[in-house]
Amino acid sequence: MVARTVDLRSDTVTKPTAAMRAAMANAEVDDDVLGYDPSALRLETEMAKVTGKEAALFVPSGTMGNLISVLVHCNIRGSEVILGNNSHIHIYENGGISTIGGVHPRTVKNNDDGTMDVDLIEAAIRDPRGEIVYPTTRLICLENTQANCGGRCLSAEYTDKVGELAKKHGLKLHIDGARIFNASIALGVPVHRLLQAADSASVCLSKGLGAPVGSVIVGSKSFISRARILRKTLGGGMRQVGILCAAALVALRENVPKLEDDHKKAKMLAEGLNQIKGLRLNAAAVETNIIFFNVVEGAKLTAEKLCKNLEQHGILVMQESPTSIRVVIHHQISESDVQYTLSCFKQALTGVKEENGN
Ligand SMILES: Cc1ncc(COP(=O)(O)O)c(C=O)c1O
Ligand SMILES: C[C@@H](O)[C@H](N)C(=O)O
């Protein structure tokens, strides 16, 4: 039994705070399928305002938020979506846009900074003159922050450029904004400005904001009314969902201001890891709360053995490949946890036990 646990597997691991639990217990609720749950309506109204969109819809997960958004935009058979080869929709959502929606993915390489080259996106758009053989491009998807590139932020200017390209070709733009609040805080740019060019976005409440469950899709009123129907089709229509939305409202109010500290702790951890023999990472590229690093060949331990060693000291991380590991900071990780984590890494890889690391 370990004396202390520092859970760095993801920002999805946070436990609801006392304030969230109290809000859940006292939530004003009604049947959200038959009409409007008042707490859900409050959350959706707030999220539409924050994102600068006409309407919003609470959904059980970011995966369902992305799936519904893609399927609403690509509601004609033979549709194709352009998305990053390292995007969450393409890698971690069970290929749902294809298996459930029949939508064909066309990937463009994600750059290290999370972007896709705009000229490569344009080159991937199908020529309508080839419609007898090609799928029809209907949607472009971006991801901000781009998680698998290390939580990298897409600028408003870049997003606008992709939006202009989409409009030029009569396409729609969806943004997987699972961590859009992290991007907003890191860039010092309001969420609504980062999403300005998007026709829709899926925003996670259950990541850095620390809500126990849920995401919100935002877009036009017409888009959201079609999304609401598709949510029901997919089994995502919920009854007294205000119990979850009440916690999300607390998260929105209390945890957005904490994201800046999450980013500072991530930077502190990245710079500390960068000093440890056997690890390789680009600490300068850490912009938000996600850190990827490699265990170099010849290190004292392999990545797998390092993860096991860390777990014995209560440090939980995510092994991403035979040589790479991911750690994610969230509001329930303290500076002391960061120092303790660094001391455990040092001890595992160099044998040096630091006293101040507890
Ligand atoms: C970038 C990104 N998009 C979407 C999701 C899906 O969210 P969920 O796990 O709630 O389905 C995640 C998961 O954490 C994610 O990191
Ligand atoms: C692993 C992935 O699905 C999840 N979105 C995370 O970042 O933890």
CATH topology of the largest domain: Aspartate Aminotransferase, domain 2
Number of domains: 2
The hetero compounds bound to this protein are: pyridoxal-5'-phosphate, threonine
Poorly predicted regions:
none
Mean pLDDT: 96
- CATH superfamily annotation of the largest domain: Type I PLP-dependent aspartate aminotransferase-like (Major domain)
Number of helical elements: 14
H/E element sequence: EHHEHEHHEHEHEHHEEHHHEEHEEEH
Describe the protein in words.
- By secondary structure, the chain is an alpha/beta fold.
- The protein folds into two domains: 6-13 and 258-357, Aspartate Aminotransferase, domain 1, CATH 3.90.1150; 18-254, 3-Layer(aba) Sandwich (Aspartate Aminotransferase, domain 2).
- It contains 14 helices and 13 strands.
- The chain has helices at 18-25, 38-51, 62-73, 88-91, 96-99, 118-124, 156-168, 180-187, 191-194, 221-233, 242-255, 259-273, 303-312, 335-350; strands at residues 6-7, 55-59, 79-84, 104-108, 136-143, 172-177, 200-204, 215-219, 279-280, 290-295, 315-316, 318-319, 324-328.
- Strands 2-8-7-6-5-3-4 form a seven-stranded mixed beta sheet, sandwiched between helices. The chain has a four-stranded antiparallel beta sheet with strand order 9-10-13-12. Strands 1-11 form a two-stranded parallel sheet.
- Helix 1 packs antiparallel against helix 11 (242-255), helix 3 (62-73) packs across helix 10 (221-233) and helix 12 (259-273) runs parallel beside helix 14 (335-350).
- The mean pLDDT is 96.
- The site of threonine (THR) has 5 residues, from loops.
